[in-house]
TrEMBL record:
Keyword Transmembrane helix: yes
Descriptive protein name: Amino acid permease/ SLC12A domain-containing protein
Domain Amino acid permease/ SLC12A residue range list: 30-476
Domain of life: Bacteria
Membrane-topology annotation of the record: Multi-pass membrane protein
Family annotation (Pfam families): AA_permease
Organism annotation: Paraburkholderia hiiakae
InterPro entries reported for this sequence: AA-permease/SLC12A_dom, APC_superfamily
Lineage of origin: Bacteria, Pseudomonadati, Pseudomonadota, Betaproteobacteria, Burkholderiales
Length: 483
């Protein structure tokens, strides 16, 4: 299955990116990536269960561990981005290292995973709209009314072009980062809670207490989206420089910010109290301290910024999935019509409509089934998507080492071998923890949830089978795949 990857597929010095689409600079890509990570959504949604089910007061250390694993992964990922510029970054890198059948499996798993996460976020958006907007509107609109309204706005905005999206996401990202930073600084200024300001949450005693693997699992889920740096390679200025820098900047910013904010909230509650509050009041965990330190008005503002955070993440993931669809259509795997660009905005508009439809139908099925938007739509969708992406990252990391070993395009020991292998092992270990603790991640021990790893494996095998079918029946498409 490991086929040689032709040097013609690589990006050389003489290959120029289409000037009409070279719109994105370093910080625009960083805005898109951090928006996909949705800092406010991650903090409000992932931190309470990570504390209650994981390592308690040691949660800041769990974010540091997850961030360091991804920084090591980023070394090989960034090195690869200097040689291959593709909208479908994951599957293009896997194809380069392990051949087209495995690359095809990666493409299908990526589509499944990102789509699952987007479905989950639509459920989360609808749920919080009923909580935040319901009382203000003095009405009782169902959650799915808000979800489908958001879906229409995402489609409308997404088709308007990537430059508009990056500016809008940048504004929303700064607002949600700002409210968390203001709360954290207020806690620091007031010297924290019962134990004062202490570095104990970073000490091995607390970091390695309880179930560290579960805490790292939730922390890693909060980073999902950073890999989009490479997806926008063809739409940025000087991708061989911008993409690696954007990757390092994004992961480092997310790591430092998450570690600082979680440290502040632990200090606010105190080492001995934080786990108890996170377990008994997960929904109000952040709002309790916001009301105490910032007042009711700022707490209300945080509630609205949570909605904008989810919207920003939805828009960013929409862009990511659309570019995967666009890349696959250009290679003949999906209908060629999806390769068309909008005459005015230059965006792959038919791919955008398909992506919206691929989300609307499953959400509609959840509505018909009467599923709970938080406990089913969000929890199940995010669990399935997280498993797929973490495993995809692990395979991608190993493929980087295989690619450089075969081509000698990069002979640096750390960049081309040690970092990719170590990153892959770390991600694979976290993936195994994910599978072993699916009930904690999804909040359910349903047989459907237990089947998630098998669903991911089945989709991957379908991709492999399609690759071999194309190799025999359409060798022209097969040869073009991943180029």
């Amino acid at each position: 299955m490991n086929e040689p990857y032709s040097p013609a597929h690589l990006v050389g010095d003489d290959v120029a990116v289409d000037s009409k689409r070279s719109l994105l600079g370093l910080w625009q890509i960083v805005f898109l990536v951090i928006s996909a990570a949705a800092p406010l959504t991650g903090m409000l949604g992932a931190v309470p269960p990570a504390i209650s089910l994981g390592n308690g007061a040691g949660i800041p250390g769990a974010f540091v561990i997850a961030g360091l694993v991804l920084l090591v992964f980023s070394v090989g990922f960034a090195s690869m981005s200097r040689h291959i510029v593709r909208a479908g970054a994951f599957y293009a890198y896997i194809t380069a290292g392990f051949g087209r059948p495995v690359g095809m499996a990666g493409a299908f798993v990526a589509l499944l995973s990102y789509t699952s996460i987007q479905i989950a976020l639509y459920g989360l958006f609808g749920f919080f709209c009923t909580v935040v907007l319901g009382p203000l509107m003095h009405g009782s609109l169902p959650w799915y009314a808000y979800s489908f309204a958001c879906l229409v706005v995402v489609q409308f905005t997404g088709i308007r072009g990537i430059d508009l999206n990056s500016r809008l996401l940048g504004v929303l990202m700064c607002l949600e980062l700002g409210i968390l930073l203001v709360l954290s600084l207020a806690i620091v200024i007031h010297h924290g809670g019962p134990d004062g300001l202490t570095l104990a949450p970073f000490s091995p005693r607390h970091v390695f207490s309880g179930h560290l693997g579960i805490a790292v699992m939730f922390a890693l889920a909060s980073f999902i989206g950073f890999e989009a740096t490479a997806i926008y390679g063809k739409e940025c200025r000087d991708p061989k420089v911008t993409v690696p820098r954007a990757t390092y900047v994004s992961v480092t910013l997310i790591l430092v910010f998450f570690a600082f904010v979680t440290w502040a909230i632990v200090c606010a509650y105190g080492i001995s109290n934080v786990q108890d509050v996170a377990t008994k009041q997960p929904g109000d965990f952040w709002f309790i301290q916001s009301t105490k330190y910032l007042g009711g008005a700022m707490t209300t503002t945080m509630s609205f910024l949570l909605l904008s955070s989810i919207f920003a993440s939805l828009l960013s993931f929409h862009n990511t999935i659309v570019r995967y669809i666009h890349a696959l259509s250009g290679e003949g795997i999906l209908p060629s019509a999806l390769d068309r660009l909008h005459p005015k905005y230059g965006s792959p508009y038919l791919a955008s409509y398909l992506q919206t439809l691929s989300v609307a139908v499953p959400v509609g099925l959840f509505v018909v089934a009467g599923s709970d938007p938080f406990n089913i739509v969000f929890s199940w969708g995010s669990a399935l998507g997280t498993i797929g992406i973490v495993m995809l990252q692990a395979v991608t990391s190993f493929s980087v080492a295989a690619f450089f070993r075969a081509t000698k395009k990069d002979t640096r020991l750390w960049h081309a071998f040690l970092a990719p292998v170590l990153g892959g092992c770390g991600l694979l270990s976290i993936g195994i923890v994910l599978i072993g603790n699916l009930d904690a991640l999804a909040g359910s021990d349903s047989p459907v949830v237990r089947a998630f790893p098998w669903i991911v494996l089945t989709v991957a095998l379908i991709g492999v089978a399609i690759a071999f079918i194309l190799k025999r029946s359409r060798p022209d498409i097969y040869v073009r795949f991943g180029q």
